[in-house]
Structure formats: structure tokens, C-alpha cells
UniProtKB/TrEMBL annotation, chains A, B:
It comes from Goodfellowiella coeruleoviolacea. It comes from the Bacteria. This is Transcriptional regulator, LacI family. The keyword Transcription regulation applies. Residues 17-71 form the HTH lacI-type domain. GO terms for molecular function: DNA-binding transcription factor activity; transcription cis-regulatory region binding. Keywords: DNA-binding, Transcription, Transcription regulation. It holds the Pfam family Peripla_BP_3. The keyword DNA-binding applies.
Length: 359, 359
DNA sequence: GAAAGTCAGGAAACCGTTTTCCGAACACGC
DNA sequence: GCGTGTTCGGAAAACGGTTTCCTGACTTTC
């Protein structure tokens, strides 16, 4: 048996094959193997081929730890979700992971679960692992304090944003999304539009409510009643819809802060004998397929395109790793997905003064 | 300036601090620093303290790549989701990540997106990164071919299972879950139980349907009509409920293969004037909160406890990494979560012969 | 035919950490 | 005052790659 004195751990069937094994089989030195595999130096075609087939035969995979050690690059990034991984994080993560994978980067998954201690633990771990960069995501779009200061590697905030304007953040243009929702309702002839949304202390709720109000004001209109702040739940949607029906039966559209709320509203309206979209048009937010498609009728909704957003974040991170940082807050447009809940009524609304700038 | 000839990459503000920096500051050798930080060897308390405070002062974090290189352990594992990361993968991943994090292991996230090419790419990547183990998950519980053979590291299949019985798989006891659902319906006095579920070619659908049928047979009963196979959607639930109402109005309970289907059934029943649970009791599967709680009334459902399952998978993987492999198929019990959709009717069903073994 | 130049591939340093081995200093007993 | 043991800490090898430098063989040129 050749003199292999590597610390063989008994549980392992055959320790991983190293560049040394390849060199031995090909009858060359390790330096030559490295050159052959990486296309460096000058080697005879025959030698190169001999090395390549030896590597192939042994199923050689270079030990990335060793590569990392002398290149200083690990080709890994960390992805920290500040809160529990959920519906919003997933498309983000998938988009980012996909974009990073294309750049041969692997992703460390870190679920901080809304716990600052866990978050800092993960940050230390990632720094210790010498990741090339970090993506920070979270369920809420509200700005949060930077995860660390003076970090030796670039950080990109996705969906969530950093309170430090010098940090790189990628956020959905929620106000723009609300604008699109309102514009669409106006375009299909609705004029008495109510807004039902989540808790007032929730950043997204206020941003969307404000944007909707503002857009209506630009069109010379007002929201039908004050925005109804509550919870991000179907139950609240149902409850709020009943409030609306009790107070003001003349509403012809409801723009909701989430698809869940919209769905509750749809159910309550139907139970009260109002038809969607004929009597009341409905727009949700999030374009969450199970909610938007399960709704009766299927729901028009604002899509924040989180997967694209994740991809953008990853691209910005890759650029920053390569020395081309793009600090600042980058907004990412939302897209309105139109479905039956805002289909043009069979009985068209009376033509009012046309909304200015509406195209 | 002291002779630092490290390859300084210009983009980086201050290269990460190494054990050498600590040694220099503390006025000792690197070996001593290592001993001080890891509690090895015999050092004077004063020396140890001097090293620790130097490390503290510099914010030293050992380079894990270097540690990996000479320990052979990377303290990382790969998590491959064979299909797109989704509703089922998330709790699994969270559970696994949590259990692994407690063991100081970091997790590489790999989303294979139902693409065997991607899957093999990720497998190679993970092997190249010398992960200590791999967890394979997927959306379907059906057995799949092993991700690789003769791998040098342990693999645990979670939720999904491997066709090779020597592989370690952790799967939910779906049949047991169906049994619990049926037992509960029997216990609240229902006798004419129908079953609506997903596509017949879907493993989970047939397993649950068969288990429900068998359990009823044990109680001397039969399913009300053949199982209705369709899709995993609310629309199918609504449609199937109408079929049921048209064909057989005497059903007093429906056990559904998923919460989405159950929700569709609930909506259709309500639209047809049937009360849930008074006229028809309803049980779902998955205990997906948004569906089960959004449903009117809230849905009794079978919970596969995926987070626990993920944790179990991680624990089995950690054990296997430590040389204590537990090959074979491990089943994980389901839990029935009882809500209003199966509340005891206000008008109790006539007491039939009591179901045997019902407690 | 000798000097110069080119080409192929080997030897060794290096990355950052751990661990083994060894030597120096010191205390102790005789 | 000299061997012996103990304690502390340094030197160096090892992990698995990459890269630089160098040498030897061959080719070219005058």
C-alpha cells in the first residue's frame, strides 16, 4: 500500500481524492495537474490530456477550502432573513440563489427568526466563513438599522432596506404599485374607491394607503372614507367589508392592502349579495397565487416581482464583490396583474369627467 | 511598516485579521494563540488572557477554510430541494436549519427546480465544497432514485424518500394522519364520510385515500362513494362538492386530501345552503394556517409537523456524520388539529353502533 | 558548433490554522 | 551543585490547492 498517512476517519468510505492522487496517476507533479486543470502555463497536449483523463477517472473535485485559502475568495455568500423565512422571503431567495448560482456562488441560508442575537450570531459565522458578500432580507419593507458597520465585505439589503443611505438596498416600489392599482380602477370606470389594509404601524400599509390617496387626489377624487387599518387577514377583510357596507353602500371598488384581505372582502361582499366585479371591483396586493386564484372571482393584484427583485439584489452584490458597488436605495417596479375581479362591468358606469393623465 | 506581503486586493478595506496578527499583538507565536483560543496545551493564565484580549481587540474570527483544510471537517451541510422551494420545503428547511445551527453547522441552500441537471450540478458543487452531509427534500412524498451512489458523505432524505431502502429517509406517516382524521370524524358521530383529494397519480393522494378507506372498513363502514380524485386546488374542491351534492345528499362529513380542497368544499357547501359542521363536518390535510384559519369555519386538519420532521432529519444526519448512521425509512407521526369545522353538531347524530376501538 | 531563445514540467513557497514535538526555564530533592 | 520533572511556549509539519521561479532539453540562428 502506498504511504498514505492521512487521518482516515473510519466512518468514511475512501477519503476524497486530492490533486496528489491525480498527479500520481498521471505521473506528473501536482503543479502540472493544477496547470492542466486550469489551463495555465504551457503543457504538451498529450500531458494535458493525460491529466484530464486521470482527473476524470478518479472523479476529482478540487477542495474548495484549499482554493479559498490561497485565493482569498470563497465563492459563497450568506443570505440572512431577519425574520422567519416565509412567503415573501422565498421568491426573493429563489431569485437571488438562481442569479448567484449562475456565478458559481453557493448560498448559506441563515434564518434569524426576528431575533437580534441570532442575527449577530449568523453575521459572525458568515464572517468567519469568509463569505464574499451578504444579502439581508426580511418580511417588512421598513428600513432597519445596518446589520453591521465597517464590514469587510459588501452587503445588499433586499425587500427590507437599511436606514443608512450609504448601504445598498433594493426595495419594491410599493407606492408605484398602489398607483397602478388606482389607475386601473379609474380606467375601468370606478370612482368611489375604498381602501382596506393592514395595521397602521406597518410601513407597507401606510405607504400603500398614502400612495392610493395621493393618486386619487391627482385625479381630483377622494378615497371613499378613511383607509381602514386592521390586520393582514381574511377575517379582517370580511369585517372591514361589513363596516363598509353598513356605512357607505355606494362604494364601487375596494383596493386592498393584501390578497388575503381582498379575499375576505370578496367573501363578505358575496355573502351580502354584492357582485364582484359588477357592483364592486376588487384589487389585492402581493399577487399570491393561492389567494388570488382561489378567490371568487380570481383577483386582480399588484405583484412586487420578488423573484426579480432577488435577482437584482444578487446582481448588485456580485457587482459590489467585483468592486463596483452601487450604494443607495434602488426601487424595483411593481406589476399589476389583471384578473376577473376588475373586469369591465357588464353595466358600464356613467361616464364621468375623464381622469386627467389617464391613458 | 512590518513586512506584510499578503496579496492585498485593493477593493477590500483592510484584509481580515489572521491568527498572525493576534500573535504579533500578544507577543507570542501563532501556535500559542491557537492553544489559547481553543483551550489546548498548557499556558500560563496570564498568557492566555493576553492572547484572548488581543483576539478580542482585533475582532479575530478564525478562517473556517483553513480550519476545514486541516480538520477535514467543514461544518457545513447541503440542503437540496429537488423541486422548487415551496410551502412544504420551508418548514422542513427551517427545522433542519435550526437543528443544524445548534450544532454549529451552516447550510448551503440548493434549489434544483425539478431539473435533474441542476440537481447533479448542485451535488457536484456540494461535494467539491466538502460538505459533511446532505439533506434532500422535495414537495412529494413519493420515493425517488438516490441522488448519488457511493457518496463519501451521509445523505438523509426528508419528506421525500429514496427508493433504495438502505438510504436514510424521514417521511410523514400520511396513512396514520388519514387514520386520525377518520377516527375523529367517527368520534364526533359521522358515518357517511366522503373523500375528495388530489390527482390519482399523486402518491400522497392514493396513500391517504387508501388509508381512509381501510380505516372505515375496520370500523365496518364504507366510504360514501369512491374517492374523488382531481387537483390540489380550491376550484376542484368546489367542483367536487357540487358533484357530491348532486349525487348523494346524505353525506355528513368530507375528509379532504388538502386544506385547499377542503376550503373549496366549504365554500361550495355554504353556497348550497349546507352548514359546516352542523350538516357536514370537514377535515383537511396539511394544516396550512392561511387556509385552515381563513376557512369559514376554521378547518380541522392533519398536520404533518414538517418542522419537527426537518429537525429529525437534521439530527439523523448529524448522527450519521458522527458515524452512527440509521439507515432505512423513518416515519414521523402526524397530528390532528381540531377546529370548528368538526365541532360536535348542535343536533347530535343518532347513536349508531359505536365504532370499535374508538376512544 | 556555440550562444541564445523557447518550451515543458518540477520544486517550493504560500494561504491560515491546528497539532505534534521539542527545548528552555525553573523548582525540587539529594 | 547536579540530575530530574514540570511547565510554558516556540518551531515546524500538515492540510490541498495555486503560482512563481527555475532547470533541463530542445530549437533556432549566425
Amino acid at each position: 500500500m502506498p504511504g498514505r498517512k492521512a487521518a482516515e476517519r473510519p466512518g468514511n468510505t475512501g477519503r476524497p481524492v486530492t490533486i496528489n492522487d491525480v498527479a500520481q496517476l498521471a505521473g506528473v507533479s501536482v503543479g502540472t495537474v493544477s496547470k492542466a486543470l486550469n489551463g495555465r502555463g504551457s503543457l504538451r497536449a498529450e500531458t494535458r490530456h493525460r491529466v484530464l483523463s486521470a482527473a476524470e477517472q478518479l472523479g476529482f473535485q478540487p477542495n474548495r477550502a484549499a482554493v479559498a485559502l490561497n485565493s482569498g475568495r470563497t465563492y459563497t455568500v450568506g443570505m440572512i432573513t431577519t425574520d422567519t423565512i416565509g412567503r415573501f422571503s422565498i421568491p426573493l431567495m429563489m431569485g437571488a440563489e438562481d442569479a448567484l448560482g449562475a456565478g458559481e456562488m453557493s448560498v448559506f441560508l441563515c434564518d434569524a427568526r426576528d431575533d437580534p442575537i441570532r442575527e449577530q450570531y449568523y453575521l459572525r459565522t458568515l464572517l468567519s466563513r469568509r463569505v464574499d458578500g451578504i444579502i439581508v432580507t426580511g418580511r417588512r419593507t421598513q428600513a432597519r438599522p445596518p446589520i453591521g458597520t465597517g464590514l469587510p465585505i459588501p452587503v445588499v439589503y433586499a425587500f427590507i432596506s437599511s436606514t443608512d443611505p450609504r448601504d445598498c438596498s433594493v426595495v419594491p416600489d410599493e407606492a408605484g404599485g398602489a398607483h397602478k392599482a388606482v389607475d386601473h380602477l379609474l380606467a375601468v370606470g370606478r370612482r368611489r374607491i375604498a381602501h382596506i389594509t393592514g395595521p397602521e404601524h406597518h410601513h407597507s400599509a401606510t405607504v400603500r394607503a398614502t400612495a392610493a390617496t395621493d393618486r386619487l387626489a391627482e385625479a381630483g377624487l377622494r378615497l371613499a372614507g378613511a383607509p381602514l387599518f386592521g390586520e393582514w387577514s381574511e377575517a379582517w377583510g370580511r369585517q372591514a367589508a361589513q363596516l363598509l357596507l353598513g356605512a357607505n353602500a355606494e362604494v364601487d371598488a375596494v383596493f386592498c392592502g393584501s390578497d388575503q384581505i381582498a379575499r375576505g372582502v370578496a367573501d363578505a361582499l358575496r355573502a351580502a349579495g354584492r357582485r364582484v366585479p359588477d357592483d364592486v371591483a376588487l384589487v389585492g396586493f402581493d399577487n399570491w397565487d393561492v389567494m388570488a386564484l382561489g378567490c371568487q372571482p380570481p383577483l386582480t393584484s399588484v405583484d412586487m416581482e420578488l423573484e426579480k427583485l432577488g435577482r437584482t439584489a444578487a446582481d448588485l452584490l456580485l457587482a459590489a464583490i467585483n468592486g463596483e458597488a452601487s450604494p443607495g436605495r434602488h426601487t424595483h417596479p411593481c406589476r399589476l396583474v389583471i384578473r376577473d375581479s376588475t373586469a369591465a362591468s357588464s353595466t358600464p358606469a356613467p361616464a364621468l369627467d375623464s381622469a386627467p393623465g389617464g391613458s
